Amino acid sequence: MANAAARAERRKSAPGKRAVNVSVRADLVDEAKALGTNMSAVLERALEAEHRQRRAERWREANREAIDEANAELERNGLWSDGLRLF
């Protein structure tokens, strides 16, 4: 009974959760069940990682001109601290 109450509480405290339908290879589903893998948690982590990578790629593309300019400036003038380094 306590486990059911804990699960119900987790569902209430999970903001913005939504049930979705996905298609997954049967062998992966079978293995996930056998291993006790929480497929929803794995999917969330995979989506977060994918989205983080895509946002980074979009940021790099949006800022490519500024990055190229900064790199060209560095090539021309070096680092401001070059004369201060002791190594």
Helix content: 55-70%
Shape: elongated
Order of helices and strands: HHHH
Total strands: the figure is 0
Strand content: under 5%
Terminal Cα span? 66 Å
Any low-confidence stretches, pLDDT <50, length ≥5? Answer: none
Largest sheet report: none
Number of helices: 4
Structural class: mainly alpha
Radius of gyration: 24 Å
Mean pLDDT value:
90
Write the topology of this structure.
Elements: H1 2-13, H2 26-35, H3 39-62, H4 64-77
Keywords: Toxin-antitoxin system
InterPro entries: Post-segregation_anti-tox_CcdA (IPR009956)
Protein name: Antitoxin CcdA
How would you describe this structure to a colleague?
The protein is mostly helical and 87 residues long. 69% of the residues lie in helices and 0% in strands. The protein has a domain at 22-78. The chain has four helices and no strands. The longest helix is centred in the middle third of the chain and has 24 residues, at 39-62. It is elongated, with a radius of gyration of 24 Å. The model has no long low-confidence stretch (mean pLDDT 90).
Which features does this protein show?
69% helix; mainly alpha; elongated; 87 residues
Quickly describe the structure.
By secondary structure, the chain is an all-alpha fold. The protein has four helices and no strands. It has a domain at 22-78.
